[in-house]
Amino acid sequence: MAVPALPDAPADALPYFDSGYDAPGVRQAAAALVEEETRRYRPTKNYLSYLPTVDYMAFQTEVMRVEFERVAARQPMDLLSMKRYELPQPPPGQRLDVAAWLESVSNASAQLEHQAARIDNLELLAAHGPAVWRAGNAFMVRMIEHSQKTLLKLRKAIQDLNFERKTEQLATGAKLQQLEETWVTLVSKNYELETVIARLETEVSAQRSEQPSSSP
Fold first, then answer.
1. pLDDT tens-digit profile of 34-60?
2. Using only C-alpha atoms, what is the Rg of the chain?
3. pLDDT band for position 213 (cuts 50, 70, 90)
4. In the prediction, which pLDDT does 53 show?
5. What average pLDDT does range 166-185 have in this prediction?
6. 127-160: per-residue pLDDT in tens?
7. 134 vs 120, 140, 179, CA distance in Å?
8. How far is 211 from 216, CA to CA, in rounded Å?
9. Contact assessment for residue 75 and residue 60, using Cβ atoms and an 8 Å cutoff
């Protein structure tokens, strides 16, 4: 993974080279600056006004709408209906009605087919379920390995970036220190030269004042 190029950082921001961050009062001074800026900051309630209005009903289905209305009305939830699993006989007044018995037999046949389909599904699950489960587990393992490799690459990229930043800051700091020492040396030499020039000017002025003035 390629490491992104470092931006041009200002020369006075060298945390890897600078010292004195742990000196007494530095943390308190930084906290005071943050507190002062916080007091001057005036947040506005409409800081999200540029965003479009949120449509909370965009993904609401009819079932969700009915359920939300039930919850808002504080009505109890309907219990699970077990009517489809019952095998009722015709009522006493229709025990001699052929149509009523046909309806009951049709219901029983539907329930029998439903239970037979459940048995088929369980048999299929017993035969093929373990293989599908193992395939799913293998896929999850591959996903985990891929995520771990990506994480390692990102950590290495971050480490390389920090190392590059540290190397650059140390080199820049050393150069700044060298330039500062050179500046101090030049300033000292300039002061010495100015002192010598001032002394020589004083001596020259003294010698001129001691020379006798020539008559016209």
1. 888 888 776 677 777 778 888 888 889
2. 45
3. low
4. 86
5. 93
6. 999 999 999 999 999 999 999 999 999 999 999 9
7. 21, 10, 67
8. 15
9. no
What is the biggest distance separating any 2 CA atoms in the chain, rounded to whole angstroms? 166
Whether the CB-CB separation of 176 and 182 falls below 8 Å is answered with no
Distance, CA of 127 to CA of 122 (rounded, Å): 9
On whether the CB atoms of residues 185 and 27 are closer than 8 A, the answer is no
Residue 15 contacts residue 168 (beta carbons within 8 Å): no
Which DSSP state fits 168? Answer: H
Are 2 and 160 spatial neighbours (Cβ–Cβ below 8 Å)? no
Q: Which residue has the tokens 């029983």?
A: 108
pLDDT at 1: 40
Q: What tokens were used for 175? A: 């150069």
What is d(CA 7, CA 148) in angstroms, rounded to the nearest whole number?
Answer: 29
Q: Which two tokens stand for residue 78?
A: 């309907």
Amino acid at 1: M
Distances (CA, A) of 160 to 11, 19, 146, 147, 163: 21, 23, 21, 20, 5
